[in-house]
Amino acid sequence: MPDDTHDLVILGSGSTAFAAALRAQSYGTRVLMVEKGIPGGTCINWGCVPSKTLIHAALFYQEGKLGARLGLGECGGTVVLERLMARKDQVVGYLRRTKYLDILQDVPGLQLVKGTGRFLGPDRLEVGDREIRSERFLVAVGGDPRVPRIPGLESTPFLTSRGALLLKTIPQSLVIIGGGVIAVELGQMFQRLGARVTILEHGPRILGPVEPEPALAVRDFLRAEGMEIVCRTTICLAAQDGAGVRVEAERDGERVSFTAEKLLVATGTAPATNGIGLELAGVETDPRGFVTVDERMRTTAPGIWAAGDCTGGMMIATVGAREGIVAVDDMLNPGCGCSMDFLSAPMAIFTDPEVGMVGYTEEGAKAAGFDVAVNVMPVSAIPKAHVTSHTAGVIKMVADRATGRLLGVHLACHRGADIINEAALAIRFRATVEDLANALHVYPSMGEGLRLCAQGFSRDISRLSCCAE
Fold first, then answer.
1. Element containing residue 11 per DSSP (H, E)
2. DSSP code, position 24
3. Kindly report the CA angle at 100 between 357 and 332, in degrees rounded to 5?
4. Is-contact 360 344, C-beta < 8 A?
């Protein structure tokens, strides 16, 4: 049917889908988005925005306790989770409306149809009783919380990251299976709001993919706040235990048991690709179900691109949005030579201290053939850290020994999510550590830590006066 033939059809309506749709609209392309749930995707509805709203509230609470220790009197009080959740819902609703729903109304040539899209072939999609045709498709269906196969889990009440953001009361105790980004972010939030939190991690440390120095700095800080972190555990069983839950695990050859009021399973993200007919369209996936793409976000099926969390790359909203833009540029302006630059894409983990990462890791730079020079500086070397009483953490820089080119920055630092953006610019424009060392920064500021760490490649920064060149 003519009215069901479109220039571009996008499966999904999250940040990746909308970035792609707006880029396509700039080419004068008619776009149809297909969405089975709430417009806005994970970031707005269940991920970045709601979680960081609550995490920041927990930070306020913790800062109040710090203020009391500094002489400001009692700044804490009873946590009213109902009010925190109402504030979270207000923020989510505002951003969903202004950044997604209003755009649907205001941008010409952009439509949305509700329902589950399923490929019938490389140029056909079924949505309910409609058959939609296009020469171009973008798969941007995102991901869902991954639930591992654990004996007894199917009959045990448990939370995922989505359910944890809908609780009506703070649990007295919480066991978290997993030690990745979601586990540590939500774990610290609940710990600060009054829960006793235990993290069970299979690997040798939490935040396994993160450089060891910042990851260990976060671990030590979480433990100092009272969180129990148990690594090298293999989960054997989950079960309901009265009004709570029990998790049994093997550690160092012994069976150990952990009980809590609530259980949170935070073991990563699975692609939301089941049941959308990728095999009928000739789109290949990896063994975990993530869509296989090249550097221009092309799938193995001509005319079909994929972007965002469903491809299994860097699962952050900004990267997904850029992937969507690269995909649209490639399909509508194929001579542009557009491709993804993951090296200069920054990522943050919203613990306290915040983790920021961009560029090569030390081992990654060595594997890429660089003769690597490294400097690791404690955050306590930054004067502003003492002003704010946030001295925990480290800054690690990786550079090419021959040229001084900055290859990677990895940090755990107060306001680290803001600081890492400067490092991303430096890496994108191939700056050297000398460039950073000679760049003036505001004093006192946490961002000055990048300059000090860069100076540390060639001098002893402990022998520098404040503001010294």
1. strand 8-11
2. H
3. 75
4. no
| CA distance linking residue 455 with residue 443, whole number of Å | 15
How remote is the C-alpha of 189 from its chain's centroid?
16
Residue linked to tokens 């060639």? 458
Q: Whole-model pTM?
A: 0.95
Contact between 22 and 148 (Cβ < 8 Å)? no
Record the tokens describing residue 398, joined without a space. 């990786």
Closest by CA to 156, choosing from 263, 297, 285, is 263
- Residue 21 CA to residue 8 CA, distance in Å, equals 9
Average pLDDT over residues 269-289: 96
Strand pairing of 354-359 and 406-413? antiparallel
What are the start-end ranges of the H helices in 127-180?
161-164
Res. 2 pLDDT band, cuts 50 70 90: very low
Whether the CB-CB separation of 427 and 456 falls below 8 Å is answered with no
Tell the burial category of 259 from Cβ atoms under 10 Å away from its Cβ (0-12, 13-18, 19+): middle
Three-state SS at 115: coil
